[in-house]
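Worked example 3. Consider a protein that binds adenosine monophosphate.
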Amino acid sequence: MWTVDEHLADVLAAAAPLPAIELQLLEAQGCLLAEDVTADGDLPPFDNSSMDGYAVRTADTAGASDRYPSVLTVIGDIAAGAGDLPKVGPGQSARIMTGAPVPPGAEAVAPVEWTDGGTGTGEAADSMGAAAAGEEVRVLRPVTEGAHIRRRGSDITAGRQVLTAGTLLGPTQLGLLAAIGRATVKVRPRPRVVVLSTGSELVQPGEPVGPGQIPDSNSFTLTAAARAAGAIAYRVGGVPDDAAVLRGVLEDQLGRADLIVTSGGVSVGAYDVVKEVFESYGGVDFRRLRMQPGKPQGFGRIGSRAGTGVPLLALPGNPVSSYISFELFVRPMIRTMLGAPDVHRPVVRAVCPAELRSPAGRRQFLRGHYDGAGRVEPVGGEGSHLVGALAMANCLITVPENVTALPAGSEVDVVLLTD
Ligand code: AMP
Ligand code: MG
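Given these inputs, the predicted complex is written out as structure tokens:
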């Protein structure tokens, strides 16, 4: 028998970060950057207005007040995106919108609220009238050099490194890449995980359930868990325990998988054709682990030649066992393939007010509810079919191999499952 740690080490030895590829920005969301990114140009790329207002020469506004406004001629209108800019001379101004380039001659922007908006009333305005060239605007306050101008390069200067390799690409990092004009980016791709559940008793959820049948739930749990871990997951639900059918499905899926995860058929049941099929590829090992639940596990590679091909983890069929096995072994493998720094779930110490029992020689994982403040309660019982309790749990309480009983109030290790 293998310990949990030995099996995990064996699994992780077969995992490596996937080779980097160039992806469109939105395809790269959630991936880790595989290059240092440097800005080619300045950001902003040109001096532009941070307000709607009037581009002015500062000397023209010296001493301006409500009583003695500076009266300036409006020589034109500059919208965001404007390319042709009027030159602002003494006594002149140009109406300018937020984000529009500051025209030559202008040294500052007087926000519309500091002007009468070209209304001729001399009253502070909250919006600008449509300026016809030759109209006047009254500026009611002096404007200092550079006021309300966002300077070229004030955000990022050309040549600066803006993101480092290994950064997780979320919304704001993708926005930055777009802002510096990048359409694609080099990242570690998400591993493509095929999730396949086996069992002749399985039907699709929503379909009629005949005698002895149950809806396939594992493929949903495992596909969702693979996605939560950062993978692109494909669900192949309910493959019957039929060697020819299972082999056919595997052959179809091999080409699109970086990792295959199956559930069911790995214990010692008489109809476990699953093991027979995987073993026929020559590279999959079936073993028993010193853990509860999740004792039977298969691991290896399947492909055209033994020892090559796609890594495969064959998890037990009991829903709680398969999910816990996923968390302990598959998730770290996915995180490793992603190149993520945090491969493992966080573990915290917590006090458990309930008494716990555990079989000798096995590491037990009980479903628990952690309160976020040092206290954990077991949820439901030990049965590995208890999906109701599993859905209430947010952590796993660990009881080590050499411990068979823990009195109420003991401190335990708790694996946190929340993303
Ligand atoms: P197995 O490991 O195939 O012997 O299955 C163990 C138990 O888990 C049996 O009670 C199965 O019916 C159940 N089981 C197996 N696969 C699934 C699945 N995909 N969804 C729900 N229950 C399953
Ligand atoms: Mg089965």
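Take a moment to read the result before moving on. The longest helix spans residues 319-338. The chain has seven helices and 28 strands.
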